Amino acid sequence: RARAAVSGALLVASGGGRGIFVGDEWALDVMGGFSTDEAAELIRASDLLVVFGTALTKWTARGGVLTEGKKIVQVDDRAEAFGLHRPVALGVLGDSALVARAATAALERRFPGGRVGYRTPETHMRVQAARYWSEQEFEFRRVEGFVDPAELSIALDRLLPIERVVIPDGGNVNAYGGSFLRVPDEQGYVLDLASQSIGCGLAEGIGAALARPDRLPVVATGDGSLLMNAVELETAVRLRLGMLVVVFDDSAYGAEVHIFHRDPHKETVVFPDTDIAAIARGYGCEAITVRSLDDLAPLHAWLAGPRERPFLIDAKIEGFASPLMAQDMH
Question: How many CA atoms lie within 13 A of 96 on its CB side?
Fold first, then answer.
């Protein structure tokens, strides 16, 4: 933060570090596929990108759109990380904290009063407006029998306590929990995509519930992911974990449907409609099926109560590509 302040730079976290700059007026929420379009534009318009400990994968760089045409300085404690995903103008080998402190001291000597840089009044207004998806304008897709996943996510973000741990699972729907639900700090976000596997969210939600009993764990997953390990609901019930599981249920492995949309044999990744709420109740969870925001009423009572067992939302959604999946397909 001090390094950015003295040089007039904006701050933004990668997906893995989301939450680390919460509360800073010059910070965007997250860089990459999870960022709002206006936040992405602010990043794209910069002329210098200094990255500490992040690899600038295609997801962080939005396929290269956010990194092209600018100089990149990469700080890492592993020399083999330099330029692994993006060409860099300069690689700095060292511990991120030590390098940041040394760079800040050097900049303070050169610019005793600091620099304005990117921190203009106009940019400040844009940062405030661009930070969170829940504050953007949307045209929701309201279809009888289905809830719009973005509208549901924004409603949950406003309803749930901010002292939470958000765990977005993989797949087509991971953008909704991964970007629409705000986090209180860097300990409020668990991104489980390092192994490029879906179906890890529920187990990680159980871990988050045990590690941070003072916070509400929120697992945002898909129906395909949930059905891969639904048996872990019994673990959560047995341990009396007050966690929320939101299943964005499009009756498919949505990512496969959209990425391989030209494949004629999609029947292996498309499922009949499944009553996931009934399955969850069978394990001892409280559970509801949501087809509109009006169906969320039982959640209010659970949130106000002792939360001694999990609550599952089976949200029936249409099978369209999420914003992140649409970017990846493009």
Answer: 10
- Supply 304's token pair: 């106000």
Q: Can you tell me the distance from the alpha carbon of 75 to that of 90, in angstroms, rounded to the nearest whole number? A: 9
d(CA 267, CA 292): 28
First CA to last CA distance, the chain? 34
Q: pLDDT for 36-60, tens place per residue?
A: 999 999 999 999 999 999 989 998 9
Q: How far is the C-alpha of 23 from the C-alpha of 63, rounded, in Å?
A: 28
Q: In order of start, what are the domains of the chain with their CATH numbers?
A: 2-130 (3.40.50.1220), 133-329 (3.40.50.970)
Q: Would you give the distance in Å from CA 232 to the centre of its chain?
A: 23
Q: Can you list the alpha helix ranges (DSSP code H) found in 2-120? A: 2-7, 37-44, 96-110
Enter the pTM of the model.
Answer: 0.92
Segment 10-29, tens digit of pLDDT: 999 999 999 999 999 999 99
